[in-house]
Amino acid sequence: MVDYVLALDLQDDGESEKALEAFERVLAIDPGEIDLATRVAFLLTQQGDYPRAIDILKDAVKAEPKEPGPYLQLAYIYAKYLKKMEPAIRYAEQAVKLAPNDIDGYQRLAEVKLTARDRKGALQTLDRAAKVSTNVPAFWTQLGKLYLALLTQGDKPPKPNELTKVNAVFRKALALAPSDASVLTDAADYFAASQQVQEAIPLYLRVLELQPNDSNAREKLATGFMLTNQRGKAIGMLQEIIQQHPEKYQPYELLGRVLEEDAKALAHAGKLDEAKSAYSRAAANFEQSLLINAAQPDNYVHLAELLLGRLRDPDRAVRVLQEARRHYPTAPQITYLLAIALREAKQSQAALTTFEEALHEAEAGGQEILDDRFYFEYGAAAEQAGLYDKAADLFKRAIELDPANAAQAYNYLGFMWADQNMHLDEAEDYIKRAIAAEPENGAFLDSLGWLHYRQGKYEQALAELLNAAAELKEADPVVLEHIGDTYGALEQADKAVEFWKKSLALDQENKRLAGKIAAATTKLSKGATAGATPIK
Q: Any idea of the CA torsion for 194, 140, 68, 6, to the nearest 10 degrees?
């Protein structure tokens, strides 16, 4: 007893070697102290002293031959460290024989066979365990977990007949302990992990009946509702979790994703106002998640893309990404997205500077983002800033990197030149290449019509621009303005004003357009024709 207490004190003081010596003196007196023998063997194994560990365990076996613990540990040492599978299997089999209703022996035997690359033998070991007659629920839940771990090794999902076998194991546990929250949770987690979500949901509900404050079960249940397209229930469940645990970031993140899925469904159904509201609430939840835990770079990116793409709120996206960049100052993806946000927020010079910083960060870190899309977005920023030669070089670089998928770059470059009334022959070539790739793209057809407008081919331009408007799924203010300009050039003032007004209704900040309408209306009131002033 003195040696044992001394050993504990030495171990607490970090003097492992002296502690081991004291423990071994205890075992010399009482080798049948199984718990101590396995503890000392474990410490020796950690130090790489496998022979001493094995000697201690064998002494324990001699002293207490019917105790399975030392056999289990011997099997582990021989298999993992000494790579001697024959004695490892022998010791594991002995542990099973001594305790046939104990899952530990089957688990160790299956692990040894897996180490020996005998997957079939490991599976047969679990099948042996499945034939055991025991009323211990933990035996069956642990066996089910072992089955799942074995069957999900590699890239292939379990076969239906394999899942049926594991389902039966977990149902045995549930039948034995229908009101045990831990058994219910283990079973629900298994069904969720094996993509049997409908089976998992009622089990999580039962867990919450037994343990109403189990927030983990609530989160899993919400995820299950989402996977089974029950978004309304998922939203309500996550809102309950947030009320109970407002300090946790995960429920906000998950609620954001559920609301985003809900918004997509609403948009698909044509309920655009409701969809925008759902997207706004999703963004608010993502922001709250990041306020609690900023160590989520992917969530910053996702939120910014949501603000830019769905909510058309570039100013807010800029603020989010500036905060992200403070946390991740050398992450090219965040810098790149910030540059796009700045461009969309009409902060042209800041956007150009940030694109250049993203370029340098990417070059220093492996160029992961420097693809054709990067140069296209950078080119759009240069065009917005009035740097047309630089923009042309960037668009050409995008085309060079992926000429087979360069329709958008061809079109943007051609339209930019047409809009600036320069390089019109080359612009026509680029626009026609874009249309050849996507002949029904309304934006590309608008570029061709605007090019012909610049060339003075007004009748041809009008037909092409009206065709462009018909091809677009939603009315576009630029196309409508182009149609109005062309009608003006054809001296059809009333039609020109009609389309300019349609354009202004979609782009109410366009002061130039308002000026055109005012001037044309004045001329019409005086009986004059309305000529168009080309856009500069």
A: 80
